[in-house]
Amino acid sequence: MSRESVQAFFEANAPDIEPVVLTDSTATVAEAAQALGVEEGQIAKTLALKVGDERILVVMAGTGRLDNRKTKDTFGNRPRMLPADEVLELTSHPVGGVCPFGLPQPIRVFCDISLRAFDEVWPAAGDRNSSVCLTPEQLVELVGAEWVDVSQH
Q: Most exposed of 19, 21, 83, 153 (fewest Cβ within 10 Å)?
């Protein structure tokens, strides 16, 4: 179901963009980079976080790490990673395929400025074997994300 919701999202919002389905797993940053033949930083990982009472998604470069101080300063609370079952419930995507596309409910999405280091980034596309190639600007525009600076540099 997850990959189908992502496919439907792109058909409705960006029919010229086609998710890539691979036989190799893209569940981790290293696996995705190897399977796609790109730098690990180009893998746009999506983190599902709870900040205060709100659950949000933060998309950042694959080599990025959340900076707790910056995240707290940006969102007003310390971030907590959601457990896998909550991530699946929130996004309909399994861990390893979490992305900001085809979500079953509105969720605020933020893109970290670490993505701007690359001309193209590869977020997951709903499951452990699919990805999509976008510019960071396309990603932000497609999901109505806001730019933030919450990664360690």
A: 153
Handedness of CA 107, 3, 98, 18 (dihedral sign): negative
d(CA 43, CA 60): 8
Tens of pLDDT along 20-30? 998 887 878 99
Tens of pLDDT, residue by residue over 108-119, are 999 999 999 999
Query: Which pair of structure tokens corresponds to residue 34?
Result: 């190897």
35 to each of 4, 56, 63, 85, 126, how far by Cα in Å? 21, 28, 16, 26, 16
Cα 126 to Cα 21: distance, rounded to the nearest angstrom:
10
Residue 31, H or E segment: helix 29-36
